[in-house]
Amino acid sequence: MSTRDVYIDKTPLELDILVIGAGFGGLYQLHNYRKLGYKVHLLESGSDIGGIWYWNCYPGARVDSPVPVYEYSMEDLWKEWNWTEQFPGWEELRAYFRFVDEKLGLKKDITFNARVVRAEWSEGDHWTVSTANELVIHSRFLVLALGFAAKRYTPPFPNLDSYQGICHHTSAWPETFTPAHFAEKRTAVIGTGASGVQIIQEVGPILGEEGHLTVFQRTPNYCLPMRQKKFTVDAQNEAKKIYPTIYKRRYQTYGGFIYGAYHKGWSSATPEERILRLEELWAKGSLEIITSNYVDLRRNQEANDAVYAFWRDKVRSRIRDTRLQEKLAPTVPPHPFGAKRAALEETYYEVYNQPNVSLIDVNENPIARFTPQGIVTQDGNEHKFDIVVLATGFDSVTGGITQIDIRGTDGRSIKEKWKNGIFTNLGMTAAGFPNMFFVYGPQGPTAFCNGPSCSEMQGDWIIRCIQYMKTHDLTRIEATHEAEIEYKEYVLEAYEAMRLMKEAKSWWNGGNIPGKVVEPLSFAGGLPSYLKRCWEKEQRGYEGFILS
Ligand code: N01
């Protein structure tokens, strides 16, 4: 296909590369292909850049990966940008994206409010991509940068539509609906994942005398202390001296952060060492408590039970009511420690000491139905609410891709291909879908990796692949079925090695969505081995792919 200059309302209709999604992953792709001289354009369903931070602007929304790893490693950007906090909130993250756009001038090559609904591989080796507002674009390559949370999940609560109060999912939050709107209101929050925890922590203290918060909890979140730090510009400028080292270090750690696993296993440590190690991690806070814990935390039941007990006792000491202690930090762990994504908190548990906050355990007393005024629980009580927050998560990792009707060489959709389980090559391509790549998606390091690190590392592999094709006069690349089978074994092996992780149902393995195949949605073996494998396949002339 030779590209021509055909436009509708400034959107070019014939391209070398079409990127979908204007978050960290997609913007990185757009910027780099432009620099390399490709005819590239980006489609975004929202009306601005920012990806996850465009959609998730609920009160308290805040990243749980620290800067400077939670930003681009491009020197032109980090040299000029300063953060005010180590874990920035959504407003500051959006300001960062505005800054990125000012520096790189990305928006001129983005069409907003363009939701891609269909993509079809056409003979002549190109993709024909259609949007809900009837744009039709032809492109040699298609790069999906949809993030892991592009498809929100709302459980099928009976009569939800009949509810007449205010009701929002955390990932479709109206920016104008600020914390102040919760004052003196009766609010329900359903779900206690990272989104629920953040919103509960934020609105709890501002409920006022007439306000009340009811939390509907199914599984307690093993929340970890965030230990937020404020930054000054001077201190940050000083810290920037080692940013280049930090950015290189990301490649050597499990999750693309600067910290890696602790060098020791639980059984080789003395009881005193263990206590001191856990106390040290607790004092530092953050997800490091999991990622830098004893290497066998997710394999060794004794280690896992002990770390859970340590966590439980810390948390219980902050909750006054003994019933709530048992609900929020049960004596017996509902699932292994580190088997679900923990949320970071600062004052989450103190909120439950407020007289105007209550918790309903939906295992004991499920939501029976909605009414125009609120929620009826199975015990027959009607709970009236002005606001209902659905913090019920996502059909994660695959959902964003399979909700688009993507049809490959044999006319079969990607949804059909993955109906009984995911098959990809290297977590970036799929057999039957030539010239299509995905970043931060199925079977990539995704759930276990810092987003910007993954966007850059997978992103660079894809960019080098497209460049290789250009310099070798190749126009088509497709993963083989054999390579997919081999890669799936690799993904399953890595998951088996973390055997305790299998014992929880979560967005990590699809267990949070009724009917979804339960399997590892991400590669759990860590970035270094993932990158090594990708690099080796590339060095062998893209082994596992057919190029022509
Ligand atoms: O989604 P979740 P999330 N009845 O799937 C509950 C990232 N993130 O949006 O645990 C009652 O974690 C469900 O219960 P259970 C972060 O990686 C990051 O909170 O399945 N409850 C769970 O409590 C995070 O892990 C940041 O038993 C129901 C909740 O809904 C990921 O996004 C901020 C239910 C869903 O939790 C997803 O987080 C926010 C039902 N029928 C998000 N169905 C930061 O960077 C589901 N639930 C800090």
From TrEMBL:
<dbReference type="InterPro" id="IPR036188">
    <property type="entry name" value="FAD/NAD-bd_sf"/>
</dbReference>
<dbReference type="Pfam" id="PF07992">
    <property type="entry name" value="Pyr_redox_2"/>
</dbReference>
<keyword id="KW-0274">FAD</keyword>
<dbReference type="GO" id="GO:0004497">
    <property type="term" value="F:monooxygenase activity"/>
</dbReference>
<keyword id="KW-0285">Flavoprotein</keyword>
<protein>
    <recommendedName>
        <fullName>FAD/NAD(P)-binding domain-containing protein</fullName>
    </recommendedName>
</protein>
<feature type="domain" description="FAD/NAD(P)-binding">
    <location>
        <begin position="16"/>
        <end position="236"/>
    </location>
</feature>
<dbReference type="InterPro" id="IPR050775">
    <property type="entry name" value="FAD-binding_Monooxygenases"/>
</dbReference>
<keyword id="KW-0560">Oxidoreductase</keyword>
<keyword id="KW-0503">Monooxygenase</keyword>
<keyword id="KW-0521">NADP</keyword>
<dbReference type="InterPro" id="IPR023753">
    <property type="entry name" value="FAD/NAD-binding_dom"/>
</dbReference>
<comment type="similarity">
    <text>Belongs to the FAD-binding monooxygenase family.</text>
</comment>
